[in-house]
Amino acid sequence: MNKLLSLILLVLFVGCKKDHETKEVALNLKQYTIEQFMDNEAVSGGSFSPDNSKLLFSSNRSGIYNMYTVPATGGEFTPITASDSSSVFAISYFPNDERMLYRADGNGDEIYHIYMRDTDGTITELTPDKGARALFYGWAHDGKSFAYGSNKRDKRFMDVYEMDISNMSSKLIYQNDKGYNINAISSDKSLFALSKTINTNDSDIFIFNRTDKSLKKINENQSSNAVQDFTLDNETLYYTTDDGSEFSYVMKYNIATGEKEKVMEKSWDINGIYFTHNEKYMVSFINEDAKNTIEIKEMATGKNLELPDFKNGSVTSVGFSRDETMMRMYVGGSNSPSNLFSYNLETKVLIQLTDVLNKDIDANHLVTAKVIRYKSFDGVEIPAIYYLPHQASANHKVPALVLVHGGPGGQSRQNFSSLTQYLVNHGYAVLAVNNRGSSGYGKTFFQMDDLNHGEKDLQDCIEGKNWLAAQPEIDANKIGIMGGSYGGYMTMAALTYTPEEFAVGVNIFGVTNWIRTLKSIPPWWESFKDALYKELGNPHTADSVRLRRISPLFHTDKVTKPLIVLQGAKDPRVLQVESDEIVEGVRKNGVPVEYILFEDEGHGFVKKENQIEAYSSILKFLDTYLKKENKPIDGEMPSKEIEAETP
Q1: Which pLDDT value is given to residue 630?
Q2: Residue 626, Cβ density class (10 Å: 0-12 exposed, 13-18 middle, ≥19 buried)
Q3: Contact assessment for residue 92 and residue 81, using Cβ atoms and an 8 Å cutoff
Q4: Is pLDDT of 633 > 60?
Q5: pLDDT at position 19
Q6: pLDDT category, 230, cuts 50, 70, 90?
Q7: Cα separation of 644 and 340, whole Å?
């Protein structure tokens, strides 16, 4: 009895202490500017130099992504590139010397080219073919060449080339006439693992033998399959599949005998696995309730490595040195941007290499995401990620936003977002919904919105609004909807087809005319075209009737609530005309519309200057039309258009 009483008192004490800490944060909460939030640094990648003394990575600390190096033992960053226009993303050090590979496109047009930086600082464009995109596929195991894809022969398909790094000459090693996706190449370069996406939950994988030109299909049943890695001896292919299961698991396939064996299964999707250079470790990525979980198995013992305990943070990605003695890790969470660490696997020495959170921001003032679930109109359970401002309470109700991810088929995840934290810091609750059709929750849920976009998935978002409205801390009359790409489409669908449900809309490069978008997809998406048509509809058939019906552009007369639209002029996926025309159509209703166009951005805003302009404009819009009375100021209908000049 005494033990039970002690336990109850302990629980009450911990609960009271937590409530007290929450109130303390709310009382002392500081609101930060968008400049302060965007002064958080974003870092990505991490390739070890041949001697493991340095890491090569990308950072946006200059306002635009450039390449930097940092000592693996910690220290100052050394800038390697100084682009002031197109972002530069590091690929890798060369295996045996300190030359570097990187990629860049034309301000977001996604036509990537591969470049080499020599040890003397000289830059050479290795894939100079105008209008052709190039993708790095990986180093040969002997380190003497690398494979890359290019669509210079046929803009629809990526052929595979091998570049000899002794003289930087390249040769065609696989001509891709059927539109396969290139997923893996065996260490002896004789085998190619290919895939073909058929539908939302139907993708086939194949092995192409360069020696006898044979093509062998691996999966037997309709299922979602993804190539992962060949073994070093070229005898086995690892792949993930959901054949006979809701979630993806790992299989290995004996190439000579055709025998298959299940080697790993979890209660969530295993998104991928790979082997380190000499197969000392196998790395697995598990999508656990919208959060990345990583397992690293030592192949000799079959045991998982014990990773350092980061308390409130989690390991989001890892990479290894070529000799498998060093590992780099990114560690972060919904309330913390990811930092880069180096970890010596032999000495167990862990070193934090970056400190990306702006020193002006108190980490206690950021909000930790909470996973919630609610029932939709037909009883389907919808998962969502909830951010509640510290200052919110039953006595201080706050406005809220339903946030819809990109896709279709994307997923809102428990990752750090400067925009989300900025809005929450300024008193907006955010519910990032994973409506039906989102990935990560089983194949049945994933397929639920096929040929149904703008209908049941929209109802899921409305039920998310209803869930928010029922929360005691939320002002039920002040709930808006926001999203980018597919999420932008959902924003416009909500304002068009359910015009009284949401108080405002934030459309970030959203599709508004499905017929045009599906007809104008980039040529290099040819291998996905049929799958897109099966999920969304074929604009060249009778499906066009339905596509027109669900395209907000043709129904702008129904929009009655304030709208802000943001668009990149270089966007190859959602063309600028999509936003131009929706703005023109809605303005005819006398509805407040703001339009922000960035001339030097594509599908997503990567330059800090533009992010600051975009996100501060969103907050000003919300403060005017959502937080305050939702009616025109002084009886006027303001309209604002901003064009951000290319730096």
Answers
A1: 44
A2: buried
A3: no
A4: no
A5: 53
A6: very high
A7: 32
Q: Minimal CA–CA distance to 585: which of 608, 612, 565? A: 565
| Cβ-based burial of 616 (10 A; exposed 0-12, middle 13-18, buried ≥19) | middle
Residue 7 has pLDDT above 90, yes or no: no
Distance, in Å, from the CA atom of 523 to the CA atom of 503, rounded to the nearest integer, reads 38
Mean pLDDT score across all residues of the chain: 92
Q: Under DSSP, is residue 105 helix (H, G, I), strand (E, B) or coil? A: coil
Give the C-alpha distances (Å, rounded to integers) separating 221 from 137, 267, 342.
Answer: 28, 21, 42
Looking at residue 639, what is its pLDDT? 34
Q: Which amino acid is at 55?
A: L
Nearest to 514 by CA among 544, 484, 493: 544
Find all residues with CB under 8 Å of 292, minimum gap 6, and list them.
Answer: 285, 286, 314, 315, 316, 317, 413
Of residues 311 and 418, the one with the higher pLDDT is 418
Three-state secondary structure of 175-186 = CCCCCCEEEEEC
Helices and strands (H and E) in the chain: how many = 11, 37
Joined tokens for residue 596: 């922000």
Going by the DSSP 8-state scheme, the letter that residue 424 receives in this structure is H
Would you say residue 475 has pLDDT above 50? Answer: yes
pLDDT at 2: 56
Q: Where are the alpha helices (DSSP H) in 499-549?
A: 514-519, 526-536, 543-549
Token look-up 């703001």 returns 594
Residue type (1 letter), 63: G
Whether omega for the bond prior to residue 408 falls within 30 degrees of 0, making it cis, is yes
**Which two three-digit tokens encode residue 93?**
């050090």
What distance in Å separates the CA atoms of residue 419 and residue 320, rounded to the nearest whole number? 31
Taking only the tens place, the pLDDT of each residue in 241-271 is 999 999 999 999 999 999 999 999 999 999 9
Cα-trace Rg, the chain: 25
Which residues neighbour 626 within 8 Å (Cβ) at sequence distance 6 or greater? 399, 428, 478, 480, 503, 504
| pLDDT(15) > 80 | no
Half-sphere exposure of 23 (CA within 13 A, CB side): 7
DSSP class of residue 430?
E
- Please determine, for residue 11, whether its predicted confidence score (pLDDT) is greater than 50: no
492 secondary structure, DSSP code: H
